[in-house]
Amino acid sequence: MSHETTRVVVNLDLPGARISRHLYGHFAEHLGRCIYGGFYVGEDSEIPNEGGIRLNVVEALRALKIPNLRWPGGCFADDYHWKDGIGPRDERPRMVNSHWGDVVEDNSFGTHEFMQLCEMLGADAYVNGNVGSGTVREMSEWIEYLTRADDSPMAALRRQNGRDEPWKVPFFGIGNEAWGCGGNMRAEAYTDLARQYSTYVRNHGDNKVYRIAAGANVDDYKWTAALMRGLGCLGGCPGEDSSPYQALSLHYYTMTGPWEDKGSATEFTEDEWYVALSRAFRIEELLTRHSTVMDGYDPDKRVGLVLDEWGTWWNVEPGTNPGFLYQQNSLRDALVASVHFDAFHRHADRLVMANIAQTVNVLQAMLLTDPDSGALVKTPTYHVFEMNTGHHDADSLEAHVVGSETRAVDGRELPMVSASASIKDGRALISLSNLEATADRTVVLDLRGAELGSVSARILTADDTAAHNTPENPDRVAPVAHDGVRAHARGLEVELPAHSYVTVSVEVAA
User: Fold this and answer.
1) Given the DSSP bridges, would you call strands 394-397 and 417-424 parallel, antiparallel or unpaired?
2) Contact by Cβ (8 Å): 482, 458
3) What is the pLDDT of residues 117-155, one digit of tens each?
4) CA-closest candidate to residue 142, choices 200, 223, 82, 53
5) SS3 of 9-71
């Protein structure tokens, strides 16, 4: 394709919805080597740790300003009984992790270990309760154990297990994937359970819980409608307390093949490159349509939408346990992430949280740990998260892409340039993705409504679309300063090499 010029128009003086930092959330399930060998190595490990929690993983994630962490699942959540994971580790009962590899789980990483991890990360806890095989009482007692300060039965049990002060738990999930592994329920049946269980996930003391109902898979708009109907009278009816749950979840994964053969993480054709990015772009349609369903019941946007599972899902790496979902992570994954974030920023008025699946060693991970050498590798996706920390809690700015070429891919028009922008503390951050596999582009940033000051830019790219990081070559795909930014009559001109992600930070004065 020819070298085209595209404009991205940004009105710097027209801020929109606040981009919650929680859109950059994470997910850690008892799955493969995410917890064991990832976050948690045990106190006897030669790998530096605190209470068994791996210190270099914590350090790497703190650099992302990780806002929250979802645990213990996923499908595992609806098999998990929290009392099995407290008390002396050598006395904890074991269980079978039937979803993920049919391995025996020894429960050595439980509630106390998770909450310690969140404290070390500086992240909010998003605890996912068990509706599928649990009880109302079990869930009610868990939130009491976690958050109550007095001498109640569960608070006393927590102190007996070594924790005097209650924790803060701002987010609580009412089951997971109730339409599938969480119970194979009908929408109306689950909605009734969501109302019931949420009632007993109580606010203890000054801990206010944001309850998240298990929402739809992909484009199941009827599920979303059922949950919205189940909320009843929003906005406070006479004699009625606040809504039983405050948000609904949504799950969507990107893959290039069918479920049984999802595609390779690193060996893909140019066509598969574009298919992956087109399917990533579908998140825009899903967020728009689910939001529209919610608007019909809740025009004031009191109820949040939470995309608590998203990311690429490829075939596992050859020679690894198929139930452990370990996959490599390439530059293509990084651009899948950047496309998602652009959509998240546009939907910041309704989308309140998102959690990539999953943080370490599983699916589209931030970090890969080598079981033999103990090496820690930051993935290309990690670097997109890090480059975007300036968007956390910033005000969104509409970024209108004008004149971008498109390709017809997988039944939709895929723009070759994706963009979003935000403003905070006198600086605008503009994210730009060139989705062309082979063609460089030049983009004019048409920046209106403010005087421009200092400018800096960074770029993430590589010599190959399938480039990825390994223990032997950990920085093959890593951000560097980008010198391809120049002043332009309309604002700035930015060079976007093929398959690249660029962030431009601009000082602005009204």
Assistant:
1) antiparallel
2) yes
3) 999 999 999 999 999 999 999 999 999 999 999 999 999
4) 82
5) EEECCCCCCEECHHHHEEECCCCCCCCECCCECCCCCCCCEECCEEHHHHHHHHCCCCCEEEE
Given 113, 309, 386, 436, the catalytic residue: 309
Q: What is the pLDDT of residue 162?
A: 97
239-255 as b/e: b if 16+ CB within 10 A: eeeebbbbbbbbbbbbb
DSSP state of 235: T
Do the Cβ atoms of 51 and 120 come closer than 8 Å?
no
Residue 257 — left, alpha, or beta (φ > 0 → left; ψ -120 to 50 → alpha)?
beta
In a 3-state reduction of DSSP, which class is residue 480?
Answer: strand
Contact 248, 216 (CB under 8 A): yes
pLDDT digits (tens, 9 = 90+) for 48-87: 999 999 999 999 999 999 999 999 999 999 999 999 999 9
Query: Is there a contact between 502 and 494 (Cβ–Cβ < 8 Å)?
Result: yes
Q: Report the SS3 class of residue 401.
A: strand
C-alpha atoms less than 13 angstroms from C-alpha of 86 in its C-beta half-sphere: 18
pTM above 0.85, yes or no: yes
Name the active-site residue from 29, 105, 144, 177: 177
Question: Does residue 285 have an active-site annotation?
Answer: no
**Averaged pLDDT of the chain:** 96
**CA proximity to 433, closest of 301, 321, 334, 316:** 334
Q: Report strand pairing: 25-27 vs 417-424.
A: unpaired
270 is known as an active-site residue: no
Strands 406-409 and 124-128: unpaired
d(CA 205, CA 379): 40
